[in-house]
Sequence to fold (283 residues):
Amino acid sequence: MRGGCRRLTRKAVCQTLMLTACLSAIWPFQGCVTPAEGGQQFNILSTQEEIALGDKMAQQIETEEKVLNDPVIQDYVRVIGERLARLSPRTDVPYKFTVIDNPDTINAFALPGGHMYIYTGLLKLCDNEAQLASVMGHEIGHVAAKHHGESVTRQYGYSILMGIILGDKSSQGAQVLAQLVGTAGEMRFSRVQEHEADRLGMDLLWRAGYQPEAMAAFMQKMQQIEQEKGGGRAPLPFFSSHPATADRITNLQNLAMQYPADLRANSPTYAERYQEKVLSRLN
Ligand code: ZN
Fold:
């Protein structure tokens, strides 16, 4: 749980930061202060600021990446996402789901504010709808627990991010936005945050009616692919930010076992529907 919000006095250290700090004084939304590790406090983006930053990043991503031109798959993935998002403990962000046409990239990620991108490479790796929903549930878990705002604020600082939100066109602003977008697919969260996203994601998966074991099953597929690839090659983006370690897989299996065994045994994975709506259209 976070402590209450209160204002922080920000000291600008260069002209850009001073401008940003002045602009942030007239920005209608106020970031809140959260305790960082070690007890030090720092200013974190408010929900409105997080949404505004995510919108800027999404605009950039959608000019750089190719959005999949298949309304059947887009609608199918959106419906799954909305089903999970409706159950999310966080309802103050506009969740949005977009499939990117890139069969060589096994990745899915969310941005601050709830935009989520799923690559066709990841769709092809899933055996069934429940596995896809497990990845999407995990990413919604990060959004629900407000991990993005905390992570990017820690990395870049509140004032720099406010500059981007307010349309900072300086080379520094452009550089930071490019960095944010460039690393969005490999955003690093702490182990504690990953565990929290797993727990929240599995809860969404279960409450949406899917088999909870699907999350560990997908992680095992990731682990297998990584082992087959062998050393010397760049890791999969989703793998580099979500290591499929034996510990993690065991942990996911244990999390799934918290749900009643008889109900789990009858929970669907929707493999046939997934084959028809996704796999048959991508091959
Ligand atoms: Zn994660």
